[in-house]
Every structure is written in structure tokens, then in C-alpha cells.
Design brief:
5 helices; Jelly Rolls; elongated; alpha+beta; six-stranded antiparallel β-sheet; single chain; 434 Repressor (Amino-terminal Domain)
Length: 200
């Protein structure tokens, strides 16, 4: 008679929240370049307790979270909002919002809109031949961009430096100043653009 393997029970919502919180706390600490000892000195929480918190071996009290938030320069509400159950959003083509500026020859489809808990949005863009768009500054300094040109040609000027792309090429950059998009060819420039706002 073969033994039946018994699967461990699924974690409760409270346990799952503790696990996400533990991971976020570890991410914040490592992103700051701090050791457990460094954070212990900054927060007044023992190294052993911090270690247990990051391994989700204990549930943090409001007092402990308050000290950790103070050390990281966060509010408690913002920290908890980051680790609440992350949404899963499935958008069909009809649900993906589109925006068009005929005067610029620019069309944009929002494939993955920004939402709480996620730092990246994904856009599908089309620029008509001869299109010219210039932005004097980004909405948020240091935004991370990853552009992949599906078809056509595209010329980007970033902080005065010109990049000429052909179909299949990609360009990754962080935007701090002015940017300019030009389509020099006789066909539209069709590209995907992922934009990420930096998070610790």
C-alpha cells in the first residue's frame, strides 16, 4: 500500500500578508545598502528580531512597523498599501484604452495601465511618417524606459544625444531632460514602450 502524500495547507491571508511584508522589508533594506546591523542601529530593533521579520517567522507589531517606516522614511499606510493583495488584471483588446492626437500623427494604446503595487506600464505606440514630437521634460525625473521598435524607423533625441533605430532594435534609457521623437521614413513607426517608475 503506497503512502499518500499530504500537501501542506495553503497559507491564510494573514500569513500571506506577513510573507509579502517580509519580502518588502528585506527589499527596502538591501536597496538602501544596509546590513541587518545597520538597520538595527537606525531603528532600535534588535538584529535577531529584524532577521525573524524578514524570514516571516514572526508577525510585526504596529510599534515595530512604525520604527521601520521611520528608518526608511515611509508612512505606515504607504508600506501596507504596497503589500496588500496585488491585483491581477486581464484586459482584452476592447478594454485597452486608446488615445490619438491627429495633429501629431500619434496613436497610443495602453496595454498595461499603471496600477497599485506595480511600477511598470506598457504602451503600444504608432507614429505616422514625418511625425515630430518633443517633450521639454519628463513627468517624473529619472523614469526608466524600454523601447522596442516593431516596424519602421524612429529617431530619438535624448538630452541632446540622437539615437537612430530600425525595426527590431531596442533602446533602454532613464529620462532626466528633454526628449524628441521623429519618424524619418515613409512608413509609420510602430513600437512598444515599457515605462517604470523607480522604487526602492
Amino acid at each position: 500500500m503506497s503512502e499518500t502524500e499530504i500537501e501542506p495547507p495553503a497559507p491564510t491571508e494573514a500569513q500571506a500578508l506577513d510573507q509579502r511584508l517580509a519580502q518588502r522589508l528585506m527589499t527596502l533594506r538591501t536597496a538602501a545598502g544596509w546590513s541587518l546591523e545597520d538597520l538595527a542601529q537606525r531603528s532600535g530593533i534588535s538584529r535577531a528580531t529584524l532577521s525573524r521579520l524578514e524570514r516571516a517567522e514572526t508577525s510585526p507589531t504596529a510599534h515595530l512597523l512604525g520604527r521601520l517606516c521611520a528608518a526608511h522614511g515611509l508612512t505606515l499606510s504607504s508600506l501596507l498599501a504596497e503589500v496588500e493583495t496585488l491585483p491581477v488584471r486581464h484586459l482584452g483588446p476592447a478594454q485597452q484604452s486608446q488615445w490619438e492626437d491627429p495633429s501629431l500623427g500619434f496613436r497610443r494604446r495602453m496595454l498595461a495601465p499603471p496600477m497599485r503595487g506595480f511600477a511598470t506600464e506598457l504602451l503600444e505606440c504608432r507614429l505616422q511618417p514625418g511625425a515630430h514630437i518633443r517633450y521639454e521634460h519628463p513627468p517624473v525625473a529619472g523614469l526608466e524606459h524600454h523601447l522596442w521598435l516593431i516596424s519602421g524607423q524612429l529617431q530619438l533625441q535624448l538630452d541632446g544625444q540622437v539615437h537612430r533605430l530600425r525595426a527590431g532594435a531596442s533602446l533602454s534609457y532613464k529620462l532626466w531632460g528633454a526628449s524628441q521623437f521623429d519618424v524619418p521614413g515613409k512608413t509609420e513607426a510602430h513600437y512598444l514602450l515599457a515605462i517604470t517608475q523607480a522604487r526602492p
